[in-house]
Amino acid sequence: MTETTTSGASERPDAPPPGDEPDRADRAAADDADLRESLADLSRLATGRLDLRAMLTHVAEFAVRAIPGADGAGLTLLENDRADTIVASADFVREVDAVQYGIGEGPCITAAAERRTVRSAHLGRDPSWPRFGPRVSRLGVHSVVSLPLLAGDGVLGAMNVYARTEDAFDARAVELGELFAVPAAISVQNAQALAQAQRLATQLQSALTHRAAIDQALGILMSRSGCSPAEAFDKLRVMSQTQNRKASAVAQQLLDEAVARARARHSAD
What we know:
Elements: E1 4-7, H1 21-44, H2 52-66, E2 72-77, E3 85-88, H3 91-103, H4 107-114, E4 117-120, H5 132-138, E5 143-151, E6 154-163, H6 171-225, H7 229-243, H8 247-268
Parallel strand pairs: 1-4
Antiparallel strand pairs: 2-3, 2-6, 4-5, 5-6
């Protein structure tokens, strides 16, 4: 079970006032409907038609609807081989998360590092983040619930859900957030895997293109000087080092020059 920390939460009555039960039941039904709708939208996301940032932004937007009291949400995807991907559903969330990652302190960092849900009702007075809390409080943001996105034994990242009012997220909001976070993590993981596959395909295509250019350039050097393949490769390597350019760039220049000369001869004839 996820451990939840609540900081600075106000006292809540154990039982609703007389006559308030129908209102609470209506609100609970509406919250459940919002969660179901958000989960349905999450399941319909066509990851193949969206890039990674667009996909993550949609997940953050759905979280705002799924979690009662939310005004905006941000999502951080941790990636070992590249810069972390950070998206936001609103400009104020982007500003708040910039503070968090700028100083290296905040609820999303805690949620991801400790693999647990984190909640704060009064960020400006929360001792958990003595630098982050007062700064974002001055920006008009006072409540947060941060949810780790877990995949097996690993942490994909975390989702921050913010509210401008104090004490915006009660236990029910946290529960709905944790329910949403499970399929959200699966969607994020799928989007990440697809993005990695697309990057690999692009890299392989680039490598094949460069390899073809290098092979053709070696053929040009061999035909010009009558040298062996190994000697042609050494010539290309020396040219690359002398010009301080990649071998593929030098090879492409040799090809372009050869094509230009051939076209010039054809025009002359």
